[in-house]
Design brief:
The structure is a homodimer. By secondary structure, chain A is of the alpha+beta class. Chain A has 3 domains: 12-209, Aldehyde ferredoxin oxidoreductase, N-terminal domain (Aldehyde Ferredoxin Oxidoreductase,  A, domain 1, 4-Layer Sandwich); 238-422, Aldehyde Ferredoxin Oxidoreductase Protein, subunit A, domain 2; 439-614, Aldehyde Ferredoxin Oxidoreductase Protein, subunit A, domain 3. Helix content of chain A is 37%, strand content 12%. Chain A is built from 22 helices and 16 strands. The first copy, chain A, has a 6-stranded mixed β-sheet with strand order 2-1-6-3-4-5, sandwiched between helices. In chain A, strand 10 (181-183) and strand 11 (187-189) form a beta hairpin. In chain A, helix 7 runs antiparallel to helix 19, helix 11 crosses helix 12 and helix 17 (439-447) crosses helix 18 (488-507). The two termini of chain A are 23 Å apart.
């Protein structure tokens, strides 16, 4: 493999075939790196090229791809991330998710840029990668363990406490369709359920330890970017509260807080569950990811009424809303416990909360009864029920086995019009942000190839700030634009911002820093020595977005799958959205114009010219 | 006018009504500045908003807009430029042209960012602007003078040798449809003939003198950009030869040199007329524009067989080809003389040469005879005839009066199939680059709203370099792409590069520097203090390109005007292009895909959504 390794990369991917137990290093080609950069780019490319159409996501035919970008693991804030992707058992489309922590930076030092896991082990195994050496090890003794026990056991048996793990708990093992992969105990690559695929392959964990960073093209330039980024106030509110601080109450006021399955508006009890309350009561401290000075991660623990292990960190905003307000739950400690359980079991808290909230509404409507729920009184606000159901989901027991399928499958099974209030797109439960106040977000929910993932489309939450748009001038926004607007102007902005987010996910960097498109170019140039720029990077993002689209089309998806759940076209029962909903005509027009801007035909199929332009093969 | 003036701008435009003799200062609005930046943006906006549809370009209803950008006149290389535009009497579309020299930087210090000239003076006048004071002065004594005499006379009567003039000679006065406006004696804002409009308004010159630069937001940042730009080799070949050095011979080899009205390929006499020969024989030195260390402008002079005044500088590549090879002229001194005459008369050398070449081919074909030409033997290669005809054009005498109308009108008058070899698009004679070897250039010729202007579309000349594409990585080009290719991939690149060129023309900076899109954002940010970026700037460029398009549509232009002259679909008579031409199907497909990428319908009309997205009113 005498190919030239570009700086910023290890230059190798590790292919792991669990069926025959082989591990093979493959050289990365520089041209390929330029065309896909890394992270989400690598993930989407390999899934597109290597997965046969129509495979069962839970079969050995599926693959799981972990990828770093050239910026992953560098000494700049926000670089602590990797992307992981697969064909989702929840959606049937690509799942892609990013996570931080310390696994990606450790993996970066272990000699590889990506791992492609294929096949299925005949018994539980884990993968162990140390300084370029990869081995597949028996994990039968680990199977069934929660994530914390697993981490401790692997570190103990390998005799190194600094080993980092990407791993699953019982949720993944039991192939809960929205099981996540945990990077350590705090950070989840969650959306679309890549943990279920890991479980289907009998792969318990990927343990990494490395000591050698790949060469960086221009360390001085990297240092200058770091200083530039650090010279701005680093989001003091994030350092103080993490996500979901006092501003969570503002979300309720604005109508943006999901309350009881996105049905209701008012939720005064938000005052009992936000990050400000956490800080003042049960919080033990804050932690951060590798190389990050913000430290936005809550550490929360207590003993009563049930013990919560601080090792799992505290709930992010998404979790506070998903298993809190969206389930009508007002008991903060129950939310924190649910967060701990999801970390221990490796469950996506958004899909977990979204599915439970849907089930609760079905229960209230009589579409599910205590006969279905093993006697659990699954009404909104019942925090004991919520916690109990999470245990059952992870174990796929009783009602939990049903809920482990996700809200779309559950709705299909229940029928009777319940699909209208299953809050999902393409099978992926929506993030905890409401398209009724956030038009660009709604468009993103519709068109993302991985479903209603707010990470790809949360941008126009910024517009809720109203006149404070001075930091959006780099997008060509000089005049106020309302968050709920779904005009051609918003579509144009949305397209740019969504493409830019793909660049972030290739790089791979955290969305919480001011890595504008220019800075991304600088960052990637500093790492790789490439003369890159915004035109190049946006073209890469277009390439990846189109491949994601083509993957879905190959799997049978059509424009009919690019739709919001009916609930968003209806007003909330109360609060500021009592007379307001997404306008269906606006949404259809926005979708059509987005297709147009992307170079897709009226049905959302990329034009042959666009495919040729981007050099997609 | 208590509006906030953004740094980098004077914050005022000067409106000059020549009919009633008034001059008025109008405040610039910051929002407007953000949306249009300056230069070409201001020019296109005002013409779109203020010109009534269907006006006669040579009537008092027309307007002439001169505009600087925030970077014009700053202490960075390449900043010495302004844009000027009007409704062209040659094309009926917008004419826009940029020029350098010392007029723009002096104008920048005179208190204004733009001048809108409207109406018509009842006798020849010139405009005099000094440190914010504007006056309209009698120019009857200047009328008929060549540019050099005019410059000297105005400087003398105003008593200041550092006064800079934008001015016309007899070509502009006589409303030759392709008369240029000279910035001093070297630099021409030429394409589309803005000098004719200046002449139609009885406006001989705009003399400027100023002492006060507007405040710049961040001088340190500007200095850093300057150092960055200067740290790279500043195109040593340009400093040594100017444009059209030894590489002009390479153009012939590549088939890219226009020979006898773009008809022939071989022209071994190129060895007698290129910039290398000039350097070794008749060159007196090199000069440069304001703040520019490259000094790419030849100074050429001699006494025999006719005197050439070195004050007018020497011919650029475009001129060497236009009145040289494209007219079959092999006599270097005649070319230099023609260049001097065009500067003295204020004629666009490209349209002058293009029109003469067309007439020469008509003459050879018998479509024009000595009866039409006042006895002039107007065959290819007759340098005496070429020079004689230039004098007649400027004076609109005899055959010159016919040729002063440009090749499109001449072809229409002659008929008999001559339109097929009138090398123009929308009436604008093509730049001296051949679409048969340069596909993206051909697309630009087709779709530019100002006609076959290579300045907007010369980019893929770069691809002629072949494998040396490392400096194109910032465009997402990693694999060789041939210059003649007209694929969707090329269309995508072409669109980006053409939009980026619009940014240059707003800024306003010279295309000869490495002001990539990111650097432009930095440059504009340093000047204005704005948080701008590539997404913002590309949106501005889209806005301006769409307005140009809408202006043309309002004037009756359709997709049928976006076509190359027939000659480019035919091979050359000899040389490497003897079996090669533009493929008409490819060209139509490329045009259609360009429309698609621009958000235009199949007929090239901007979609209502695109107009709304860009906020065009």
């Amino acid at each position: 493999m005498p190919k030239k390794v570009p700086p910023g990369y290890n230059g190798k991917i590790l292919r792991v075939n669990l069926t025959d137990g082989t591990t093979t290093a493959e050289a990365l080609d520089e041209l390929f790196c330029r065309r896909y950069i890394g992270g989400a780019g690598f993930v989407i490319y390999y899934l597109w090229k290597e997965l046969k159409p129509g495979i069962d996501p839970l079969s050995p035919d599926n693959k799981l791809v972990f990828a770093l970008g050239p910026v992953s693991g560098l000494q700049v804030p926000g670089s602590a991330r990797n992307c992981v992707g697969t064909k989702s058992a929840l959606t049937g489309s690509i799942a892609k998710a990013e996570a931080g922590g310390f696994w990606p930076s450790e993996f970066k030092r272990s000699g590889y840029d990506a791992i492609i896991v294929e096949g299925k082990a005949d018994k539980p195994v884990y993968l162990w990668i140390q300084d370029g050496e990869a081995s597949i090890r028996d994990a039968r003794h680990l199977w069934g363990m929660e994530t914390k026990e697993t981490e401790a056991a692997v570190r103990a048996e390998l005799g190194d406490n600094r080993i980092q793990l990407a791993l699953i708990g019982p949720g993944g093992e039991n192939m809960v369709r929205y099981a996540c992969i945990m990077n350590g105990l705090h950070d989840a690559a969650a959306r679309g359920g890549p943990g279920a695929i890991m479980g289907s392959k009998n792969l318990k964990a990927i343990a990494v330890r490395g000591h050698k960073m790949p060469k960086i093209a221009d360390n001085e330039r990297l240092k200058a970017i770091r200083q530039q980024i650090m010279s701005r106030p680093l989001m003091p509110w994030l350092s103080e509260f993490g996500t979901g601080g006092f501003d969570m109450a503002d979300l309720e006021v604005a109508g943006n807080l999901p309350v009881r399955n996105f049905r209701d508006g008012l939720f005064p009890e938000v005052q009992q569950i936000h990050g400000g309350v956490i800080k003042d009561t049960i919080r033990l401290g804050m932690e951060g990811c590798f190389a990050c000075p913000v430290r936005c991660k809550k550490v929360v623990g207590f003993k009563e009424p049930y013990p919560v292990d601080p090792a799992y960190g505290g709930p992010e905003y998404e979790t506070l809303a998903a298993v809190g307000s969206n389930c009508g739950v007002t008991n903060l400690k129950a939310i924190v416990k649910a967060n701990e359980r999801c970390g221990a079991y490796s469950l996506d808290t958004i899909s977990t909360g979204g599915t439970i909230a849907f089930a609760m509404e079905c229960f209230e409507k009589g579409l599910l009864t205590t006969k279905d729920t093993d006697g659990i009184d699954l009404r909104f606000g019942n925090d004991e029920a919520m916690l109990k159901v999470i245990d059952l989901i992870a174990q796929r027991q009783g009602i939990g086995n049903l809920l482990a399928e996700g809200s779309a499958r559950l709705a299909k099974k229940i029928g009777k019009g319940s699909e209208a209030f299953a809050i999902q797109v393409k099978g992926l439960e929506a993030g905890m942000h409401d398209p009724r106040v956030s038009g660009g977000l709604g468009l993103g929910y519709m068109v993302n190839f991985h479903g209603a993932d707010h990470c790809a489309a949360v941008f126009d939450m910024m517009f809720l700030a109203g006149p404070a748009i001075s930091n959006l001038h780099h997008l060509g926004i000089y005049e106020p634009i309302s968050a709920d607007e779904l005009s051609p102007r918003k579509v144009g902005i949305a397209r740019s911002v969504m493409l830019k987010k793909v660049v972030d996910d290739c790089s791979v960097v955290c969305a919480f820093f001011e890595y504008t498109l220019d800075r991304q170019a600088e960052l990637i140039a500093a790492a790789t020595g490439w003369e890159t720029g915004p035109v190049d990077l946006m073209k890469v993002a277009e390439r990846i977005t189109n491949i994601g689209r083509l993957f879905n089309i190959r799997e049978g998806f059509t424009a009919a799958n690019d739709v919001l759940p009916e609930r968003f076209f209806q007003p909330k029962t109360d609060g500021v959205l009592a007379n307001k909903s997404v306008n269906q005509t606006d949404a259809e027009k926005a979708k059509a114009y987005y297709y147009r801007l992307m170079g897709w035909d009226d049905k959302g199929v990329p034009l042959p010219e666009k495919i040729a332009e981007l050099g997609i093969e």
